[in-house]
Amino acid sequence: MTNRMLTLPKVDLHLHLDGSVKPAAIMDFAREIGERLPVEEPELLLPYMRVEGECKSLIEYLNKFHFVGQFLHTPFSLERTAYEVVEQASAHRCMYIEVRFAPQLHRKLGMTVEDAIQCVVRGLQQGERDFGVTARCIAICLRGHSEELNREVIRAASLFLGRGVVAVDLAGAEAAYPAELYRDIFAMARERSLPITIHAGEAAGAVSVRTAVELLGADRIGHGVRMREDAAVVELIRRERIPLELCPISNLQTKAVEDLSTYPIREYFDLGIPVTVNTDNLTVSHTTITKEYELLHAELSFSEAEIARIAQNGAEAAFLQGEEKRDFLARFDQQLALWQSEVR
User: Fold this and answer.
1) How far is CA 66 from the centre of its chain?
2) Domain count, the chain
């Protein structure tokens, strides 16, 4: 089944840049800025960069980002990381990816928010040329950051809309900073015609999902696992056909659910909610998009036809616009039909 899932055409809509850095790249980034590392071999860096064994909470999971974040403050580091994320996606027949990052976290050595976005877009575009994966960027506003800092992200993202950036996001400590605190920020995003995805229903409950949709104007929801705690919110998402960016392996690691037996993807899928499957963080979660789909088939009993539907959900939920979106969907549907017709 591994090869079968490997050849499935896929998209990855929820993919964090700083959670997907290669250890060898960190070695080079540290040398570039003259920082010492705790070890001298790339493979020995992995315990600092990814979840090992049991992860007790989202907070413990997020600690892995603090280590990596020290080394992503130069144009070279951002551009290379973005490029290598596209390369990693290409190895798993990803036809389209949306790579998200918080540009305000990469300014320690003098880059502006606009500089950081430009570097990531440049890396994604070079990766697209070299590997044939359509790659776009989502700029993240952060819970706990000042209103002015988040407004700066919205302003910068709007300058790159249609030029590599396709949307904005809200991420961070969901339970500590409710989505309603960011109502004005995302009103500004809507005024500038920026599509919106919001991290919600991961570390906080169903009300977080409702707020993301009704107050912030979310076009998609990042995770949404815990919305099942309120049937009315589930019905809202079903009725409005809001795509969910589910990340099964990460959702298990961060304790958004206790175990696979309580993971709600089957429930949501059967209700007709447009669920999508994504990686979240390639390095931190030690995952690939192929591994995520294998989990669906082997552990959650999704058939190939259902898996194809989920892959198509992802393509349809992409933040591409207009003719570019139509062209991509035509190519994706053609490749998916070929995959379904292959003799097994």
Assistant:
1) 18
2) 1
The domain in which residue 253 lies consists of 2-341
Q: What confidence score (pLDDT) does residue 255 get?
A: 85
CATH code for the domain of 50: 3.20.20.140
C-alpha distance from residue 176 to each of 102, 181, 183, 204, 225 (Å)? 18, 11, 16, 9, 18
Amino acid 1: pLDDT: 41
Please give the distance of CA 42 from its chain centroid, rounded to a whole number. Answer: 24
**Does the global pTM surpass 0.90?**
yes
How far is the C-alpha of 313 from the C-alpha of 93, rounded, in Å? 16
| pLDDT, position 58 | 67
* pLDDT mean for each 10 residues of the chain (344 residues): 86 98 96 93 91 72 86 98 98 98 97 98 98 98 97 98 98 91 98 98 92 98 96 98 97 88 96 98 96 95 97 98 97 97 78
Q: Specify whether 202 is catalytic.
A: yes
CA of residue 192 relative to chain centroid, distance: 22
- In one-letter notation, the amino acid at residue 328 is F
> Which residues neighbour 75 within 8 Å (Cβ) at sequence distance 6 or greater?
111, 115, 119
Catalytic residue among 152, 202, 292, 294: 202
- Per-residue three-class SS string for the chain: CHHHHHHCCEEEEEEECCCCCCHHHHHHHHHHHCCCCCCCCHHHHHHHHCCCCCCCCHHHHHHHHHHHHCCCCCHHHHHHHHHHHHHHHHCCCEEEEEEEECHHHCCCCCCCHHHHHHHHHHHHHHHHHHHCCEEEEEEEEECCCCHHHHHHHHHHHHHCECCCEEEEEEECCCCCCCHHHHHHHHHHHHHCCCCEEEEECCCCCHHHHHHHHHCCCCCEEEECHHHHHCHHHHHHHHHHCCCEEECHHHHHHCCCCCCHHHCCHHHHHHCCCCEEECCECCCCCCCCHHHHHHHHHHHHCCCHHHHHHHHHHHHHHCCCCHHHHHHHHHHHHHHHHHHHHCCC
Reference 222, options 152, 296, 281; nearest CA is 281
